[in-house]
Amino acid sequence: MSVTKRYLMTPGPTPVPAEVLLTMARPIIHHRTAEFEATIAEATQGLQYIFNTQNEVLMFASSGTGAMESAIVNCFCAGDKVIVARNGKFGDREKSIAETYGLQVIDLCYEWNEVVKVADIKDTLAAHPDVRGLIVTQSETSTGVLNPIKEIAALLRDMPDTLMIVDSITGIGAMECATDDWGLDVVMTGSQKGLMLPPGLAAVSVSEKAWQATQRSTLPKFYFDWKKYRKSLQKNTTPFTPALTLIQGLNEALKLMQAEGRENIIARHSLLAEATRKGVEAIGLQLFAPPEGRGSAVTPVWSPQGIPAGKIVKLMKEGYGVTMTNGQDDYKDRIFRIGHLGYFGMFDIITALTALEMALTSLGYDFEQGASISAAETVFLQAQNEKDGEGVQ
Ligand SMILES: *Cc1c(COP(=O)(O)O)cnc(C)c1O
């Protein structure tokens, strides 16, 4: 039997660096200790850096969806009007959560390969000046579409009773999310995405405006009651047993992220995405997301005519140990998605493209072998040359 080396190339969960894994392998400590209080304080500061905010950032033991639900139950009352602008699976989920809690959803629904339009939001806000919240997904992981959060948030500057709520679950740690500068009231992420951790920890930044909204919120909540977390956080602790191993891992991941720097993290993801796009286009494949809204967390690609995406993904996983993912819902067999979010470097992209080429060859797709690798390599070399050029000046 031969050993298969495995590669995780999905937009969540994502690979975890060895430093982080080793930290999490240490024996469990108790969380009501000075030692763990210091861990929480460090995690909070690091999260503020990565969220680009002075706001408090709360942590929950939950997946990302818990953070989404927490935003609804803490900011609103049943019957409150909110706009949900959605163009993918996670926007759909936001709508469902809001409806579950009896909010009145003004539904701005787009095709999955469309970008949320600022002008539409502007019109909808004008038609519904009494909306209490505007909910948008920054990086739609189901489609790779990047929505213009900065421009959308700017529309709320003169609306003191309307909160800007952003699912940045695959934005944070990959793309620019200037929480304070853009005026984002609630921003959420989950550990298994750009933070380079296993699943199980969610984080939410809460602005002063959002804290004010919590005062009028009457929706039932217990575990996700932000006020409990805020009160505990002031003593560097949590109201319930925290996902302490993940928080220890988080600090290690945050160290890596702070050493690299926010700008460099964004630039790295942008380069990896560019190389992936150039690579797949070089073998005649079509990108799913439109040019005006392509994020750098994941690259969704149309499956070639006659080849179901599920088959490509299955062959790569079972044949070569490379895990990518196919589309969701209506796009299950029509697109496949290459994740490059978090702990990814240039040669991961080369690996991904090679596995893709091999799978496509086996499934009878006709193209020039090696063309995607060559295209990606060119993107990397150009970037390297530009960097070296900067160095000698
Ligand atoms: C992963 C993800 C979520 C949350 O999913 P969980 O499985 O609950 O962690 C929400 N929104 C987006 C955009 C995501 O990528």
Keyphrases for this structure?
44% helix, globular, single chain, 393 residues, 13 helices, seven-stranded mixed sheet, binds pyridoxal-5'-phosphate, alpha/beta
List the helices and strands and how they pair.
Layout: E1 7-8, H1 18-24, H2 34-51, E2 56-61, H3 64-75, E3 81-86, H4 89-100, E4 104-109, H5 118-127, E5 133-137, E6 139-140, E7 145-146, H6 149-154, E8 163-167, E9 186-190, E10 201-206, H7 208-216, H8 226-233, H9 244-260, H10 262-282, E11 298-302, H11 309-320, E12 322-323, E13 325-326, E14 335-339, H12 346-362, H13 371-392
Parallel strand pairs: 1-12, 3-4, 3-5, 5-8, 8-9
Antiparallel strand pairs: 2-10, 6-7, 9-10, 11-14, 13-14
The protein binds pyridoxal-5'-phosphate (PLP).
Pyridoxal-5'-phosphate (PLP) binds near residues 63, 64, 170 and 193.
